[in-house]
Amino acid sequence: MARRRHSPNGVAVGVPREVEFPIATGVALLRDEPDGTTFLWVNGVPSSPLRADPEVLDFEYMQHMSAAVAVWSPPPRMLAMHVGAAACAFPRHLAHRYPDSGHIAVDIDATLPELVRGWWDLPKAPRLRIRAQDGLEALATRADDSLDLVVRDAFSGADTPSHLADQTWWAEASRVLRHGGLVLANVGTRPGGTSARTDLAAARAAMGAVTSIGEHAVLKGRRRGNIVLAASTRLDTDALARYAASASLPTGIRTDWTP
Description:
Blueprint: E1 21-23, E2 26-32, E3 38-42, E4 45-50, H1 60-72, E5 79-83, H2 89-97, E6 102-107, H3 112-119, E7 128-132, H4 135-140, E8 147-152, H5 167-176, E9 177-189, H6 195-207, E10 211-215, H7 216-219, E11 225-231, H8 237-246, E12 251-254
Parallel strand pairs: 5-6, 5-8, 6-7, 8-9
Antiparallel strand pairs: 1-2, 2-3, 3-4, 9-11, 10-11, 10-12
Helix pairs in contact: 1-8, 5-6
């Protein structure tokens, strides 16, 4: 079978923009931005940027996650599970940066992963396997000590679904990790909200020490935004603090963050 041609931004030639595609959880569309980036929108919310260069990450929280992985020093042949696949921008980035790594991306939507495979130049299996599966079930069906990295980036509206942010989910994430493994979770937070507090408490109960990475104003509860929770016994927080000090936006890390 002939390899499908892709445009300079990495999206397959001929894929229409501003056209709603029905998916299991609603609708998805592709939208071009003035800078040449194409964004995947899901149910009216920008979900993932699509770029030809997998090294480039547009969302700050993904940059924080990438930095956390780097200072954690991934083991050879790292195996990662990504809960919340969308367009697989972050799994694609890590697969490029760590060529011997393997990635499993799961999404509750059975249709979206099929569309994304056709739209975008993604690594093939076994480097990147995409499954339609609930994010708790995906962990619960894994064997103990079978993953090096767990990444959670799953949302329903502004919040992570509650069953992916409670004590059960975090306990499963801890169970499947190999010794020294890393869990990264993207948390949406806003002044007066309570979901981030519940999420963080569950993370600490399961993982012990948890480092929070984000913009200072968000960490201080002054405005809404995204915070990355990072938990591992091998996380180099000093190196992560140096990354935060050099980030493009005013960014900090906290080991005692309280939403």
